[in-house]
Amino acid sequence: MTPRLASALHLYQTQAAGFLYDNPGSALFADLGLGKTAVSLTLLARLKAEGSLGRALVIGPLRVVNETWPDEIAAWRHTAGLTYSVLTGALSSRQTALAQTADVHLVNREQVVWLVEQYVDFSKKPPRLRRPWPYDVIVVDELTGFGDHASQRFKALRAVRKMAKRFHGLTATPAAEGYAKMFAMTYLLDGGERFGKGITRFREAYFDLNPYTHQWKIKPGSDQEITRRVSDIVLLLRAEDHLPREKPTFIDRRVHLTAAQMTLYKSFQRDFYAALPDGAEIEAVHAAALGNKLLQLASGAVYDAERKTHFIHDHKTEALTELVEEAQGEPIMVAYWFKSSLERLKKAFPKAQTLDDKGVVLKRWNERKVPLLLVHPQSAGHGLNLQYGGSVLAWFDLPMSLELYLQTIGRIDRQGQTHPVRVYHLVAADTDDEMAVERLARKESVQAGFFERIRKWKAEHEQKRRTA
């Protein structure tokens, strides 16, 4: 590939790189497709040019660090000079890559604990350094992956946070699941300056505990206060502000279960137990398991206690067949959640393909040589550029995670897409599928509110700066 000139960057990308440069502990909350990777690499290239880049650590989802970041480094003339090493795969290959001298080390988030343990001895109380921490810049792609304060990956990164001169987080979906993750994400940015060192203080200040469900619910007005406190270290980039284009069209394609199938569905929903047509029995041990199995039933197959798949119906497969026929050869990306759905999709559509680790199918998709691409949101939901291969996405199974839902849509609805994007929900009528669509819409309104408040606080801060 011929590297693009730095001048080919959009003005907003250059300005975003400047914001990160001016704010050593900061986050870029940018809509999908706005070029977060190019912005971050521009920052690293600037630091290297001025001699202030020792070594940078970039953390992200596996496919993102294996494919997206190396591709982007080579794609720009001003970043092509950055050397990098990829710390993924087997232990021996990770150790070899770690020993290599490079400007940037790329590691998947699953290996963060391993990496930190090469430098920190956690058997000591408090933990002690085994050897000097080599990274003065840390960039986390998809910062929400470190939003769980109790996770080992967060604790590992927290232990070395102060040893990095810079920490930058990137994500398009900071509040997709509400405000609970804001404590851990902000802590990594500011070391506890805004919300303190521990989760208890944060929760008591901004949330109420339901004594019956043991769930934390945000207090009235706390969403505004949390947003205000992080607004100065966050740059918000919205697609409609910088790359005006037609928004995706969302279409619900409803399928209808037969009377017998609905009777089975309703009885299982009521009793947490059902006898299936093939003689097998299924049972849900708690409400969460019930919801999961109801979504399986809505999609056409359900697992028993031994994880054996039992076929129920093919209504969604038939609806997808109709959609393929309507597309008249236009490539379609199909998102599934359950393994049983993937098995049935492969059987019903023999020419369908799934993404491989080497990126061969991804390349063929973007060359429009794959008629049907089957993707799972957890493996294709972050970082992949799929916009060149098609503009139609069909959700065979509906996910519960708004972040993965939006990120998956963002694989095709991003810069470089030349056709209007259509998103189809295959929805089983009168089932939990409809509730899933409603929940996703409610969660999206929460994040939209967060973004709007960021805009407000940014505008007020800028007004005060100008009048000062």
Radius of gyration: 23 Å
- Determine the CATH superfamily of the largest domain: Tandem AAA-ATPase domain
The gross shape turns out to be globular
Distance between the termini: 48 Å
Q: Total number of helical segments?
A: 18
Q: Biggest sheet, in brief?
A: 7 strands, parallel
Return residue spans where pLDDT drops below 50 for at least 5 consecutive residues.
Answer: none
Q: What is the helical fraction, as a range of percent?
A: 40-55%
Instruction: Could you tell me the CATH topology label of the largest domain.
Output: Rossmann fold
Question: What strand line-up does the widest sheet have?
Answer: 3-4-2-7-8-1-11
Strand content: 15-25%
Could you explain how this protein is built, in words?
The protein is an alpha/beta fold. The protein has two domains: 6-241, Rossmann fold (3-Layer(aba) Sandwich), CATH 3.40.50.10810; 249-442, P-loop containing nucleotide triphosphate hydrolases (Rossmann fold), CATH 3.40.50. The chain is 42% helix and 18% strand. The protein has 18 helices and 21 strands. The strands form six sheets. A seven-stranded parallel β-sheet has the order 3-4-2-7-8-1-11, sandwiched between helices. A six-stranded parallel β-sheet has the order 12-21-20-17-19-18, sandwiched between helices. Strands 5-6 form a two-stranded antiparallel sheet. A hairpin with a 5-residue loop joins strand 15 and strand 16 (309-311). It starts with 10 loop residues before the first helix and ends with a helix.
